[in-house]
Amino acid sequence: MTIFEMLLQGLLHSLTPVNILAATVGVLLGTLAGVLPGIGISGTIALLLPLSYGMDPLTAVILVGGIYYGSQYGGSTTSILLNIPGEPTSLITCMEGHAMAKKGRAGAALGIAAIGSFIGGTLGIIALTFFAPPLADLAVRFGSPEYFALALLGLVTLANVTGGSPLKSGLMVMVGIMLGTVGFDPVFAAKRFTFGITDLERGIDFIVFAMGAFGIAEVLLTVSEGWTAKEIAKVKFREVYPNRQELKRSKGSIFRGSVLGFLISLIPGPSTFLATLASYVVEKKVSKYKDEFGKGAIEGVAGPETANNAGIYAQLVPALALGIPFSPAFALLLSALMIHGVTPGPLMMKLHPDVFWGLIGSMYVANVLLLIFNLPLIPLWASMLKVRAEFLMAIITVVTYVGAFALNNSIFDLWLLVIFGILGYLMKLANYDAAPVTVGLFLGPLVERCLVQSMVMFNGNFMLIFTRPFAGTMIIIAILICLVRIVVWAIRRIRSSRENSTTNPADTVTLS
């Protein structure tokens, strides 16, 4: 049978009333989980997984898969409306999406996020359908050296993602890396920077920091500025669709985001998060409206959101074709298959073609359902902005606290939430951005773990990493980027000193 015939059969399996209902419930619950910051996709899937025990294997995996797809849509909602990343991959959307909301373009930001997500998701599913076998072969070749080089390149490239001072951004990245070292050493399992606190042994949760530095800090900033400091624009359904100029500016961003999101996310690990950051950097470089970035550039919403949704389908390649989960959510997705006697891996397409192709077909269905549900419901989510500021801040605080506690059922995480909230607030006052800290906190542990594993592999000889073509190339690119930034910084300092010496000549003293 050809791919088209197998895909057609998969679509027929996924379009049964039971499976459509499972997809609908899954995407709605997933969107809700993405909207509520910190609730967590893994926690949502884990809670609903027991409900799938009596289901058909395909129906069960469609339900679980729908939750995951929906979360990627829902994460953009709180990022744009409330400046709280519902998911790590929605972090970049906070910067431009929330700035657009402040300018009264929340509806357009939410609309372009939904449209870009749909297009990126659709292109990602098509690529997954036709290129899964060769892409799986490519993904399996990556080892610790490649992961280390990729994460290192990500830190170097994305350190100045906010476009502020390179020195400040680099300092914030280092702070994030330092926070990422809290917990157990990956080699000797020795405790580091725990100060005798048992709860710190498991490390600092990325989501807890993000919710504190963005959510609680935003609440504190709003309180300090006063309830009337911000004007909240009304968002109606007719305002959801972007205007002609915004659509024109977003076309290229959506295309580039689809390609970047899928290709980068083929590499197992936190590559979808990296893809959204890379998309933002690319858009900032190629845009004709560079001065709008940080102030509400629609390209900064369209590109990363498209990359995010294209990337989640790319990560299904190693998960389904190799049976290797690279995130807790994918581990739960694969466990849903194994519970029903379906072993994910290279033989899944041969032994269980109805489940494999039914799941692929359900992705097309779920993507359409997400667009149908999200666009009409955008005014409903945007109506949260109409709530009086004091009530809105209270809701944000409660939801953030509930989400932080739900991550690990830990009171200690609530204390961390408060500390990071105060830290984020102080950083805002000092004109420092929290985004580079999150980059360091998210990628730092990966860099350390993969570097240690690479050193063990090469018997302590770091230079042998350059014998791996992909890893060596990425490290060389990272070094070149650092050198270029140093040269550019030196040239700017020299020009600045010359201009100062020309415009402010030394005072001369005339003796008479």
UniProtKB/TrEMBL annotation:
Lipoprotein listed as a keyword: no
UniProt domain DUF112: residue ranges: 20-437
Keyword check for Membrane: yes
Keyword line: Membrane, Transmembrane, Transmembrane helix
Membrane spanning stretches: 20-39, 46-69, 108-135, 147-165, 171-190, 202-221, 259-282, 319-343, 355-377, 389-408, 470-491
Name of the protein described by the UniProt record: Tripartite tricarboxylate transporter TctA family protein
